[in-house]
Amino acid sequence: MGIQFTVLSSGSTGNATVITDGQVTLMIDAGFSARRIDELLGMRDLTGDQLTGILITHEHSDHIKGLGAVARKYNLPVYANEKTWEAMNRSVGKLADDQRIIFGTGEARDFGSLRVESFAISHDAAEPVGYVFQDGKHKLSVVTDLGYASDKVKETIVDSDVLVLEANHDIEMLRMGRYPWNTKRRILGDMGHLSNEASGEALSELLNGRLRRTYLAHLSREHNMLDLAKLSVRGAMEDRGCFYKDSEFKLCETYYDRPTPWDKVGEP
C-alpha cells in the first residue's frame, strides 16, 4: 500500500493529520474537540478506533485541544518528548501510564512498515518537533509551527517525495492586521511562524527531482489566503531562480474546515 495521508484540517484554529501504511494509522496532533476530530475522520472514511496512536508536535492548544478526550475514548497511546509531556500534562488530563510514551527529539521508531523520526524545530514551545515518515521507498515530511527553516531542518526533510510545510502568513497582511504589536513580533520572529515568502525560500533549496508535491499548511485565517499563499510561495521560489513545470511539481492546498483528499506518497 505504501504511505498514504490526509491533512484532516490545518490552520491557526486547529491541526490534525493522518498517515497510514494500511496496517498502522497514526494521527499527528489533535487540535480540535473530540467530536470535531470524529467528524473530520469520518469525512475520510475513518473512525477513531482505527487509529494506532497519536504523535504530538508541541503543546499549544491548536495542536492538543482534543488530545486527552480522544486518547481516553479510543485508548490510544500518545507519543511526545519529555518536555512536551511536562508542558501539556494539565491540559491532557488523566491517561494510563501505558498511554504516555516518551518519543525523544531526534529519535526514530518503527510503526509497522513506517519508520518515524522526530526532529527539532524553532517555535515558542517547550520542545517542538516535526516528523519524517519513511517506508524504505518513499518519504513524507510534516513540519509546521517554525519561525525559520534552519539548515538542520532542511537537511532532515530534503529528498522528501511529499512535504507538508507551513505557509502561515503574508507579512504585509500581518503587519497591517489587528493583532497587537507584541503578537505580530512573536509571529514574525525566529520562534514564531513561517511566512509565505520564507516557505518559498526554503522550498527553493528543497526542490529536486524527487519532491513532487508540497502542501501549504497552517495558514492564518486572519493574515493569509490560499491563492495568495500559493502565488507568494511560487514567486519567492522564482525570485531565487527556482522554476518548475506544474507537471513536475505542485503546490497543494490544506483547509481549516475539511480534509485534503487521500494522497499516496510516491505517486506522480
Q: Could you walk me through the main structural features you see in this protein, from its secondary elements to its overall organization?
A:
InterPro entries: Metallo-B-lactamas (IPR001279), RibonucZ/Hydroxyglut_hydro (IPR036866), WalJ/YycJ-like (IPR052533). It catalyses: 3',5'-cyclic CMP + H2O = CMP + H(+); 3',5'-cyclic UMP + H2O = UMP + H(+). This is MBL fold metallo-hydrolase. With 268 residues, the chain is of the alpha/beta class. It has one domain: Metallo-beta-lactamase, Chain A (4-Layer Sandwich), CATH 3.60.15. It contains nine helices and 14 strands. The chain has a seven-stranded mixed beta sheet with strand order 6-5-4-3-2-1-14. Strands 7-8-9-10-11-12-13 form a seven-stranded mixed beta sheet. The protein is globular, with a radius of gyration of 17 Å. The mean pLDDT is 97.
Secondary-structure blueprint of this entry?
Elements (H helix, E strand, L loop, with lengths): L3 E6 L6 E5 L4 E4 L5 H10 L9 E3 L5 H4 L2 H8 L3 E3 L1 H11 L7 E3 L5 E4 L2 E7 L8 E6 L4 E5 L7 H7 L4 E5 L4 H6 L4 H8 L7 H11 L6 E5 L8 H14 L10 E4 L9 E2 L4
Helix pairs in contact: 8-9
